[in-house]
Amino acid sequence: MEPRSEVVIRQHDYLSGRVLLVNAPTDDLLSNLAHDIEASVWTWNYNEFQYFQNQQANVHFGTDMAEADFDQAIVFVPKSKELLNYVLHQLVARLAIGASIFLVGEKKGGVERAAKQLLPYGQAIKLDSARHCQMWQLTTDKTVTPKPLAQWAQEYNVSTPSGDLRICALPGVFSQNRLDIGTAVLLPYLKQVTSGKIADFGCGAGVISAFLSKLNPKNRIFALDVDAFALASTQMTFEKNHLPLEQLEIKAVTGIEDAPLFLHAIVSNPPFHQGIQTDYNASETLCKTAKRHLKSGGELWIVANRFLNYPLLIEQSFGQCITKADQQGFKVLFANTQKSSKE
User: Fold this and answer.
1) Helices assigned H by DSSP within 32-167
2) Of 25, 156, 228, 279, which has the fewest Cβ atoms less than 10 A away?
3) Is S-adenosyl-L-methionine there in the keyword field (predicted)?
4) Could you give the dihedral angle defined by the CA atoms of residues 24, 28, 30 and 34, in that order, rounded to the nearest 10 degrees?
5) Residues 204 and 172 sit within 8 Å (Cβ to Cβ)
6) Rounded distance, CA 109 to CA 112, Å?
């Protein structure tokens, strides 16, 4: 069991009734709670959703809380300060005045900073500090009116060879405030991507998907991400730029293995973070197995940090990997499947 969960168990006597666990670790915490506690889970990570489903837990995936009543909530501190603000606002809007919201996190994950975000909603006290973690208790003394999801998005402009795009990025989504360098390096090369069925793996706020739509209205774009806030951001970006939603299919995925088959192209600025941890599994699996999802002659386009070993992984799978660009610490990598002699 994770240290964060162990701290919760240490303070188990504070828990009662219908308890919502937000952003909970994928461990055995639920099975260690008392039988009189009715626990539910809210997650926006599709991998974690699948885990809790397999545990037969009462779990909800999405940007909003489940439509149910809760007496208490335990929030496991997310990486993003803005995302924690959103979560706390949602909880205070739904829980009764005087309810307890517990905040749990690692010291290295910024739990002490996060605890200050409790203060606008009531009195907060530190319950425990153990295993390099802390647990805080907020007793709410007010309620708030929920704000529509769109009001939580930050917007910024991105200049492309086909005109400007207005990007909408919700809390916690990669590169929420500005265009990241990797995507900026990749954008000029998207004009070379073959048209047809294209997957944007790790779509984030939808920069790549929106540009591919702008380039060719005949493209069929599959925006794939593990994060519900990213998927919602991509849809908002399409709507903000008046791009045809019939071009877009948004899909929550655990990894590239959930992508459609017979794609003309896969384009990605691949993810390498899981919460506060660095995790290259999803992007390395993309390099190794993307070929299975491409039709004959299909293309893989990736932008990645220069120091990563993606070219070797791609070459081992495709037989070749071409570096289209190497600038500002990033490489644009290209490979394609060999067309059969019948084509």
Assistant:
1) 46-54, 81-94, 111-115
2) 279
3) yes
4) -140
5) no
6) 9
Least Cα distance to 179 among 258, 261, 237 occurs for 237
Structure tokens at 106: 């690692």
Which H helix or E strand runs over 332? strand 330-336
- Residues 192 and 212: beta-carbon distance below 8 Å: no
The SS3 call for residue 111 is helix
Of 138, 168, 187, the position where a domain reaches its end is 138
The mean pLDDT value of the chain amounts to: 93
Q: 277 CB contacts (<8 Å, ≥6 apart)?
A: none
Give the model confidence (pLDDT) of 156-194 as tens digits.
999 988 889 999 999 999 888 889 999 999 999 999 999
Helices (H), 181-224: 181-186, 207-215
CA 60 – CA 39 distance, rounded (Å): 12
Is the CB of residue 293 less than 8 Å from the CB of residue 263?
Answer: yes
**pLDDT number for residue 133:** 96
Q: What is the distance between the alpha carbons of residues 317 and 309, in angstroms, rounded to a whole number?
A: 13
Asked if residue 130 belongs to a domain, the reply is yes
Same domain? For 220 and 265 the reply is yes
Q: Are 204 and 173 in contact (CB under 8 A)?
A: yes
- Per the DSSP assignment, residues forming a β-bridge with 38 are 18
Residue 247 to residue 216: CA distance in whole angstroms: 10
**How many independent structural domains does the chain possess?**
2
Which two structure tokens, joined as six digits, stand for 295? 């039709």
| Model confidence, pTM | 0.94
Q: Are 105 and 114 in contact (CB under 8 A)?
A: yes
**Structure tokens of 282?**
């999803």
**Domain hosting residue 163, numbered range:** 148-335
Shared domain for 84 and 208, answered yes or no, is no
